[in-house]
Structures are given as structure tokens and as C-alpha cells.
Design the sequence.
């Protein structure tokens, strides 16, 4: 077998931490690999190492495909390096504004003047630089067709849904016509239809001659994969040919111990709760951007203590609907919307609304500043700020640590948010949503990026919270098995219309 890439006895460091010691990993031509393992096992770190993002301080990484490329082209174009022949699709995007001077920020998509400062899908794809090769397979027409981007071409990046963004990122990676495509949890955020089509997508990528390495769940391994590497505690513990792989042997431990008495104490902070007739009341809500109707004739009433699942495909309007409830969307004032028994536009502030809501979403994770410690991030939930901008309060910090223990992430209390695994970051934001015991919890795809044990533990935690309190819940997911047992009502959207309710 001719090797494409080989890592030999490598020591890999990031910041002051040793990520891998004596790492060995070889990808031969014609092979396609899946990386599996619990959260924090090293899957993302291995992809980042291959992409050249981390320091290799011992051993070596040999990019054999680069020598082949130089032979094929006959010379080195503009001192090209092997990095240009690798494309990495990460869980977070790095989109910038039109003038390329700043990153997007959380509420930008709902502020019309600011959201105009964003490229469209077409403009973004036009900006991708392709390496000149003899046989270039992927062009805009092909990636647009494969990833079903046609209807999105004039849409600004900031207004894309989470799943639409993921499809665009894969398309952009293919436009680079890499030799090696690295995909880090590419199925998170994709709806049922797109996940079902993912095998077709990977098959076509494989047929175009690109080698694929994908970090994924044991139960979401594409058919095109030929080999699996199982990671454990920062090391590859097993190499398994696909035809010998049994996913059930790699299920994470789902044994759970929820401390009901501790949760009861955390949920009973002694504050007298306001009694509401309606948490949410919407009457014929209509939202449009330019000529594009996002939501049409939406009627929805949520009574205190109800638990709803909000379902629908990517781009159905779910995030926009939630933005009206969470106080982020200024178009709420032009509609008949009552939140916590107050009609929008009758004097309540955004902060009045946010104080009653615990919220987490992929967009919040995407844009949340990461320079606070995890404990500070969670304490910031008391103030609804994106980070802690005041001295820490001892009592509130102690409560934040108790919530961290409940979510099994207390070991990260003093670590900066940016230096912990993405799954632990998400759990920090979930703790931030829970800390003030809000009247309404809005969980938008809360289990994205969590391993099976973390998903199970979080689902059990939510059901326990619901059994111990009268909290109202809106839960969004593309995975049926993630919906908590406490959810009894469903609102389903398609193309901005309610197609099922109740």
C-alpha cells in the first residue's frame, strides 16, 4: 500500500499541554477513516494535528501526497505548502464581514443594517481560492448541486441556519479541491433529510479522488469509510477495518446518577415566582427579510409548565421563531406577541425578557467570547451577559460550581472556555442557562457535539428538573431520541408555516 500521510512516534503540543505522545497513524491511498471516541478523547485534536494547527515537537508527520503533487504539476506553485492541499471543516465557522475587518457577532443576523455587512453564499464561494491542479473536479456548479445550495445563493451568511452553514462549509472545503478532506462532526446541525443524503455526499467526494478523515459517532459512520480509529484519553487505542467494526462495542457508559436532593436545592432558591397566564402568545406572526418570508401566520400559545418540542428541517424558521421569544429580534414589535403576560412594545426591556429565560443554541456557542474561565461564563448567566464583566460574587460562583458538578464538568471550573473540548463548552453554556432558575428554558439543539453518555446524562437531568419544578421548556433537535420524556407537545415548522401543533 502506498501511504498518503504518516504520523510516526509524534509528540504533539498545544499551548503548554502535551496532546499526544508516541502518536502513530497512517492513511494509505484509497483509505477513508472515521475517528470515534468519547468527548475529549482526542478526535478533534488529531484532525487539527494533521491540518498543521498544533506543534509537533517529537517524531514526524510526512505528507507523502505533497511529493506526489509536486511530481504531478512539475513545479511548486508560488512556494505552495502541503497545508493548501488539506481542507478542514470545523464545528465552528470563521465568517467575517464584507470589509474583512471583524467577525460576526451574536445578534447581527437580526439587525438589518448590520446584517447587510455580510457576503452572500455566492460571494463567499467566489472568494474561495482553488489550488491549480491538472484535474480539477469540484467547481461552484458541482458543490452547489451536491450540497443543495441553489436556493441559498443570494442569502447572506449571517442569515443561514446552523445546518445551512454546515452545508456551505463542506462546499467551500470541496472548492479548494484538496487531496485530504478533514471533517469534524459534520453531521451535527443537519436535519434528517440531509443526514440521510450524507452517504451520497461522501460517496461523490470519494469518487472525485479526495481522501476523507471524519470525526463522528460510532453510529454515524458513512458507507465510504474503510477504516476506524478509536481514540481514548489522547491516544489511538484501536485500528479497525470497517468490515470488522461493531458500533455497539463502543457505546459510551450511560449509567447515570442524578442527585435529586442537590437539584431540588438548586431549583429552590427561595425567590417567590411570578404566576403567569401565558409564557408565550403569538397571533398570526409574520416575519420577512426583503422579499423573503421567513415565518407566516404563526399562532402559538405556551402555558406555564408546558414542555414543547420545536421541530422542522434546516431553514424552516425555528431559530427566527425563537429569536422573537428570546428578545433578540426587533421585528417582534411589529407583531402581536405576548411574552410573560406582557405585549411586546408596551414598555418591557429586552433585559426584562431575558431575565426570565435560560437559553442555549448553536449560534450562542458560535459567538460566545471564550476568554473567561468556565466558572465565570456560568456565573454570567445571572446577568444575561456574554461573559462576566463585573467582580465575581462568592455565593453566585459557588452555585455555578454546583451546577458544573451536576453536569459533570467541574474539573474545568478554572480553565478558560477556549481551552476545553467543544462538548464541555456546550455544557458550560447549558449550566449558564440553568443557573438562575428561569421560568422558561429554550434549548436549541443542546446535545450537538456531546457524546452518548453526555447526551443521556443531560436528557436525564432535564427530565429530573421538569419533574421537580414547573419550568416551561422549548426543545429543538433533529434527533428524535434526544427529546426528553417530559416533552408532551410538538410544534412543527416547514418553510415558515406551522404544519403540526399540539
Sequence:
Amino acid at each position: 500500500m502506498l501511504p498518503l500521510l504518516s504520523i510516526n512516534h509524534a509528540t504533539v503540543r498545544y499551548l503548554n499541554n502535551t496532546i499526544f505522545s508516541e502518536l502513530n497513524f497512517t492513511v494509505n491511498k484509497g483509505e477513508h477513516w472515521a475517528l470515534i471516541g468519547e468527548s475529549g478523547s482526542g478526535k478533534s485534536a488529531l484532525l487539527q494535528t494533521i491540518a498543521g494547527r498544533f506543534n509537533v515537537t517529537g517524531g514526524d508527520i510526512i505528507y507523502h501526497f505533497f511529493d506526489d503533487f509536486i511530481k504531478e504539476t512539475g513545479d511548486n506553485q508560488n512556494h505552495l505548502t502541503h497545508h493548501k492541499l488539506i481542507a478542514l471543516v470545523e464545528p465552528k465557522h470563521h465568517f467575517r464581514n464584507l470589509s474583512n475587518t471583524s467577525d460576526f457577532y451574536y445578534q447581527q443576523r437580526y439587525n438589518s443594517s448590520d446584517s447587510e455587512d455580510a457576503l452572500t453564499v455566492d460571494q463567499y464561494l467566489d472568494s474561495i481560492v482553488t489550488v491549480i491542479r491538472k484535474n480539477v473536479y469540484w467547481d461552484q456548479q458541482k458543490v452547489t448541486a451536491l450540497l443543495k445550495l441553489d436556493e441559498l445563493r443570494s442569502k447572506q451568511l449571517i442569515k443561514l441556519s446552523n445546518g445551512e452553514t454546515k452545508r456551505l462549509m463542506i462546499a467551500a472545503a470541496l472548492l479548494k479541491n484538496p487531496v485530504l478532506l478533514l471533517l469534524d462532526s459534520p453531521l451535527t446541525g443537519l436535519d434528517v433529510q440531509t443526514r440521510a443524503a450524507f452517504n451520497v455526499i461522501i460517496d461523490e467526494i470519494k469518487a472525485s479522488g479526495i481522501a476523507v478523515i471524519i470525526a463522528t459517532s460510532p453510529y454515524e459512520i458513512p458507507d465510504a469509510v474503510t477504516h476506524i480509529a478509536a481514540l481514548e484519553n489522547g491516544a489511538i487505542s484501536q485500528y479497525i477495518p470497517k468490515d470488522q467494526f461493531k458500533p455497539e462495542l463502543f457505546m459510551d457508559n450511560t449509567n447515570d446518577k442524578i442527585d435529586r436532593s442537590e437539584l431540588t436545592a438548586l431549583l429552590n432558591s427561595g425567590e417567590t415566582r411570578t404566576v403567569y397566564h401565558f409564557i408565550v402568545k403569538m397571533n398570526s406572526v409574520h416575519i420577512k427579510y426583503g422579499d423573503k418570508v421567513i415565518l407566516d401566520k404563526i399562532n402559538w400559545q405556551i402555558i406555564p409548565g408546558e414542555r414543547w418540542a420545536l421541530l422542522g428541517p434546516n431553514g424552516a424558521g425555528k431559530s427566527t421563531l425563537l429569536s422573537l421569544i428570546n428578545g433578540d429580534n426587533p421585528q417582534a414589535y411589529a407583531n402581536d406577541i405576548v411574552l410573560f403576560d406582557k405585549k411586546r412594545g408596551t414598555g418591557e426591556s429586552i433585559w426584562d425578557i431575558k431575565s426570565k429565560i435560560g437559553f442555549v443554541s448553536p449560534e450562542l456557542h458560535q459567538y460566545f467570547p471564550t476568554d473567561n474561565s468556565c466558572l465565570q461564563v456560568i456565573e454570567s448567566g445571572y446577568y444575561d451577559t456574554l461573559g462576566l464583566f463585573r467582580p465575581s460574587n462568592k455565593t453566585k460562583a459557588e452555585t455555578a460550581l454546583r451546577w458544573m458538578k451536576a453536569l459533570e464538568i467541574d474539573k474545568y471550573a478554572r480553565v478558560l472556555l477556549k481551552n476545553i473540548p467543544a462538548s464541555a463548552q456546550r455544557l458550560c453554556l447549558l449550566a449558564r442557562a440553568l443557573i438562575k432558575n428561569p421560568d422558561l428554558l429554550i434549548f436549541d439543539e443542546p446535545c450537538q457535539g456531546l457524546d452518548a453518555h453526555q447526551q443521556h446524562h443531560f436528557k436525564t437531568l432535564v427530565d429530573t428538573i421538569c419533574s421537580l419544578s414547573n419550568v416551561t421548556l422549548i426543545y429543538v433537535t433533529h434527533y428524535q431520541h434526544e427529546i426528553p420524556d417530559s416533552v408532551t407537545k410538538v410544534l412543527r415548522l416547514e418553510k415558515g408555516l406551522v404544519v403540526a401543533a399540539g
